[in-house]
């Protein structure tokens, strides 16, 4: 059962109906039972559910101990116990294959393991710090860990921001429910109109990377950047929308990251719940920026190394993290040079042009790192990057080469229009425009015309691609 399946929305509709029928004080039980049922169906077996429940109960017990005894040893042991399943699943095979030259182990891989691991670690750490009180009811704690709209791909919730919303029964709120429907529909648009279409070309180039070099890699890099953002934002939008149907507001996880004017700004906009987690539980405990410039750079590098390792085992993920750390360190070291360059070129007289130059440069830096991120290995990723700067095959833009690699010209047009819509919506939202409010203020008949037009367009032009599983979300693998 996935977020794009009819079965999932039948389940959501039944759960929502039961939720609003039961008394307020009992409504959290619907979310608990629904979350356990969803996780069991998503895993396809009881083994994965059992693994998560065991982890949750261990964290529950450790939290009670931490609340009574603020002991670093208890905290360290609890975090290690919580992270151990993730370490085995995410890095166990890599260690066995690379260091010990042994065959891979078929681990039980619980859905969303990377996300709920960070979630539980933040919960335990906040109890140790005295920021929150431990949850005494084990059933309510399981609901916090397994809340089904966010368990697969986040956002990574904080206990003090989510728990009360889960446990307090919500009355039916038309505006919130309609807003949830908008978010679900927008998620389908991002997934089927952009992510799944772009994936067909991207997969082609990466599969035959030794043949498709130079500008092919540039186009694939741009499309993969769009694919990854649209795919992840789609899942988050659907997650937030489904939560809205039950009166729950999940944290925002994206704020138009490709409109960032620096890599530092990018990380204030991209996967915001992870960025905040890394800042609060890695960067600041290491000393943050309080101990001099050199120590700040070291802390920054260590934080992004953790980010890379969290995304997966292998040198390419570590290199991806180090690239982002390097971007920010170089940017900080050359800040005065940048100011002088802007003054010398008189760009301060054209603030609009300066803004878009900075956005374009930031996107190029981020895209280059994504190329390594997507590659099967660091070596292949570096080969692709090098060919992008070395090979000048601009002729691919003037013949039919791009139309023979998974996408025909009609699909390119549909993808281009969809990206344009995303761009316009992002710019307007950056300027403070709320499209959900604009739509909600329209007459009911006009709103339904817009809904039906959007659904028809997605069903007609949304792409799956031969052999491509449109129901699989990229970040579900992390």
List keywords for this structure.
globular, 20 helices, mainly alpha, 0% strand, 478 residues
Protein structure class: mainly alpha
Q: Outline the low-pLDDT stretches.
A: none
* Net shape: globular
Radius of gyration: 23 Å
* Share of β-strand residues: under 5%
Order of helices and strands: HHHHHHHHHHHHHHHHHHHH
Oligomer category: single chain
The percentage helix is over 70%
Count of runs of 4 or more consecutive helical residues: 20
Task: Kindly state the number of beta strands.
Answer: 0
What's the rounded overall pLDDT mean? Answer: 88
Give the termini separation.
Answer: 18 Å
Taking the sheet with the most strands, its summary is:
none
Q: Your description of this structure?
A:
With 478 residues, this protein is an all-alpha fold. The chain is 71% helix and 0% strand. It contains 20 helices and no strands. The chain has helices spanning 6-21, 27-43, 46-68, 72-98, 113-128, 138-146, 148-151, 159-167, 174-207, 215-245, 263-267, 272-286, 293-311, 315-333, 335-344, 351-374, 378-390, 409-430, 435-440, 444-461. The longest helix has 34 residues, at 174-207. The relative contact order is 0.10. The mean pLDDT is 88.
Write the SSE topology:
Layout: H1 6-21, H2 27-43, H3 46-68, H4 72-98, H5 113-128, H6 138-146, H7 148-151, H8 159-167, H9 174-207, H10 215-245, H11 263-267, H12 272-286, H13 293-311, H14 315-333, H15 335-344, H16 351-374, H17 378-390, H18 409-430, H19 435-440, H20 444-461
Helix pairs in contact: 1-2, 2-3, 2-6, 3-4, 3-5, 3-6, 4-5, 9-10, 9-18, 9-20, 10-16, 10-17, 12-13, 13-14, 14-16, 16-17
């Amino acid at each position: 059962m996935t977020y794009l399946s009819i079965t999932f929305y039948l389940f959501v509709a039944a759960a929502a109906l039961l939720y609003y029928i039961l008394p307020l004080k009992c409504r959290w039980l619907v979310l608990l039972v629904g979350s356990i049922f969803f996780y069991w169906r998503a895993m396809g077996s009881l083994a994965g559910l059992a693994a998560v429940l065991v982890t949750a109960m261990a964290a529950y017990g450790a939290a009670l101990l931490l609340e009574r005894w603020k002991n670093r040893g208890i905290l360290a042991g609890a975090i290690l116990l919580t992270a151990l399943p993730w370490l085995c699943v995410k890095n166990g095979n890599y260690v066995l294959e690379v260091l010990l030259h042994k065959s891979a182990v078929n681990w039980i891989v619980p859905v969303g393991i990377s996300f709920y691991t960070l979630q539980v670690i933040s919960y335990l750490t906040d109890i140790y710090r005295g920021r929150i009180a431990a949850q005494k009811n084990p059933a309510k704690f399981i609901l916090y860990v397994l809340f089904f709209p966010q368990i697969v791909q986040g956002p990574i919730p904080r206990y003090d921001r989510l728990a009360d919303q889960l446990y307090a029964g919500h009355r039916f709120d038309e505006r919130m429910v309609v807003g949830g429907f908008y978010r679900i529909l927008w998620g389908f648009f991002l997934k089927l109109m952009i992510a799944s279409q772009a994936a067909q070309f991207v997969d082609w180039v990466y599969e035959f990377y030794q043949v498709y070099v130079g500008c092919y890699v540039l186009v694939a890099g741009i499309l993969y950047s769009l694919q990854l953002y649209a795919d992840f934002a789609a899942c988050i939008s659907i997650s937030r929308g489904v939560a809205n149907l039950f009166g729950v507001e999940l944290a925002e996880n994206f704020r138009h990251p490709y409109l960032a004017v620096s890599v530092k700004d990018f990380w204030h906009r991209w996967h915001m719940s992870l960025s905040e987690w890394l800042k609060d539980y890695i960067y600041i405990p290491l000393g943050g920026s309080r101990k001099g410039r050199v120590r700040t750079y070291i802390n920054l590098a260590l934080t992004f190394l953790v980010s890379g390792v969290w995304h997966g085992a292998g040198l390419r993920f570590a290199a991806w993290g180090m690239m982002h750390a390097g971007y920010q360190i170089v940017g900080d070291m050359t800040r005065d040079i940048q100011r002088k360059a802007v003054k010398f070129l008189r760009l301060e007289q054209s603030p609009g042009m300066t803004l878009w130059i900075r956005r374009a440069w930031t996107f190029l830096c981020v895209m280059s790192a994504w190329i390594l991120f997507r590659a099967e290995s660091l070596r292949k990723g570096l080969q692709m990057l090098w060919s992008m700067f070395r090979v000048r095959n601009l002729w691919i833009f003037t013949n039919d080469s791009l139309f023979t690699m998974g996408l025909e010209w009609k699909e390119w047009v549909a993808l281009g229009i969809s990206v344009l819509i995303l761009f316009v919506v992002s710019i307007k939202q950056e300027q403070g425009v709320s499209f959900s409010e604009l739509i909600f203020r329209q007459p009911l008949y006009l709103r339904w015309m817009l809904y039906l037009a959007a659904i028809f367009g997605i069903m007609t032009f949304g792409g799956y691609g031969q052999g491509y599983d449109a129901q699989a979300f990229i970040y579900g693998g992390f």
